[in-house]
Amino acid sequence: MNTQHKQANADGRGFTIIEVVLVLAIAGLIFLMVFIALPALQRGQRDTSRKSDAGIVSSAITGYTSNNRGAFPSTTNLTGVSTGVLAASGGYVNSSSVSQSTTTVTVVTSATAPAATTTATYTATDGVIAVYQGYKCDPSVSTGPLVAGLRGSGNKSKFATVTYVEAGGSGAYHCQDN
Predict the structure, then answer these.
(1) Does the chain have fewer CB atoms within 10 Å around its N or its C terminus?
(2) Among 103, 98, 61, 74, which residue's Cα sits nearest to residue 86?
(3) DSSP structure class, residue 42
C-alpha cells in the first residue's frame, strides 16, 4: 500500500497564509481608496449638472427676450408657476429640461438698471438658480456681494445667473453672465 502525502507549497501548489493576507490587504486598500474618492467624484458631477442648468436657464431667458420684443421674463413666465418651482410644462424652463439638482428658478428684476455701485448678495441655496436682471458677475470677491450693477439703462437685458455649488465649501456659488 502506497500512500503519498502532499504538503502545501512543497511542489509549488497552494498559497501560504502570508500570501493570502497580503492579497487581502492590497484589495482592502484599493477598496478604501475607491470609497474615499467616490464622494468627491459625485460632488463634481452634481456641480457640473448645476452649471449646465444655469446655462439652460440663461438660454431660456435669451429665448424669451427674443420672442417677446426684448421684455425680460418674470419668474412666472420663465417657470410657468408663480412660486418659481419648476413645473412639468408651461414655462420656458421646466423640470424635464434641467437635472434633479435644480428645483427652483428665481428671477430678481428691477424697473431700471442698477447703478454701477449697486451690489446684490446671493445666499447659496441648493437647488435654486437666481437670475439678476441688470447685473453681472463680480469675480473679485469669493464671498459677500456677488453681482455688481451695470451702468446705463441699455443694460436692462443683461443678467447674471447664480447657483450653489459644493466644490468651494459652504456658501460657494457659480455665476454666469449672459
Answers:
(1) N
(2) 103
(3) H
Site of grid cell 439678476:
132
Q: How many domains does the chain have?
A: 1
* 6-22 tens-digit pLDDT: 555 555 678 899 999 99
Q: What is the largest CA-CA distance in the chain?
A: 108
Domain presence at residue 44? yes
Does residue 112 sit within a domain?
yes
The contacts of residue 176 (CB under 8 Å, 6+ apart) are: 51, 54, 55, 58, 137, 160, 161, 162
How confident is the model over 28-74, as pLDDT tens digits? Answer: 999 998 888 888 788 888 888 888 888 888 888 888 888 888 888 88
What is the layout of strands, in order, in the sheet containing 128-133?
104-108, 128-133, 159-164, 173-177
Flag whether 128 is in a domain: yes
Output the pTM of the full model. 0.71
